[in-house]
Amino acid sequence: MRKLSIVLGLLSMLTFTQCDILESVAGEVVNGGGDGGTTAPSLTNEEVIAGLKEALSIGIKNGANKASLTDGFFKNDIIKLPFPEDAAKMKEQAIKWGLQGKVDEITLTLNRAAEEASKKAAPIFVDAITNMSISDGFAILRGSDSAATTYLMDKTTSPLTAAFKPVVHNAIETVKLTSYWNPVATRYNNWAPLFGKEKVTSDLDAYVTEKGISGLFYLVKQEEKKIRKDPVAQVTDLLKKVFGSLLD
Description:
Elements: H1 2-31, H2 45-67, H3 88-96, H4 100-118, H5 121-131, H6 137-141, H7 147-174, H8 177-191, H9 204-229, H10 237-244
Helix pairs in contact: 2-5, 2-9, 2-10, 3-4, 4-7, 4-8, 4-9, 5-7, 7-9
């Protein structure tokens, strides 16, 4: 009888020990392992939203710096402003008149206006980013490699256009764009009615604003892609925490 009691006691001790081990293992799995708490803490939606906005703010600052350099627009074939599409007939006729040089000057100065305006772009964009409402940060974080910029475009293009247009107007005045445009446009508009052509009424402020904002958004997309994929571009602790989670 005594032997039986001893055997039962040993079995009970083994059972309790195994349960303790199982509970310990389960606890480590739930808590992310037994590494003393070195596993990255979970992200909150608020942190993700803050990280997205920080990435966009850094992206526009870097993008505006690039765009505002001499030839920042003009020698970047992707964002370069072409001669206005609605003035294509004027361009064709000007070239026939031997005014290719004037056409080239207009194209160059359009881009100089966009570059000049970009010097003042960052605060306008950052204000739009700061006031942008995001409900589900995780959906954007886990989206495409430019999902945050696309969201920004969808939500802020209209107010950005209104805020950026006066800056563009001043830039156009600074680079004297109209002094290149007006002589060619005036000559064409005097000629056009005689041959049944429509006059050119291009709004240069609107044109440079639209193309300038489009070009800046493109540059922000490139910066966002970099932050998402390159740990070196994650220059703050928040960016490391939010976008580093995509690299785990």
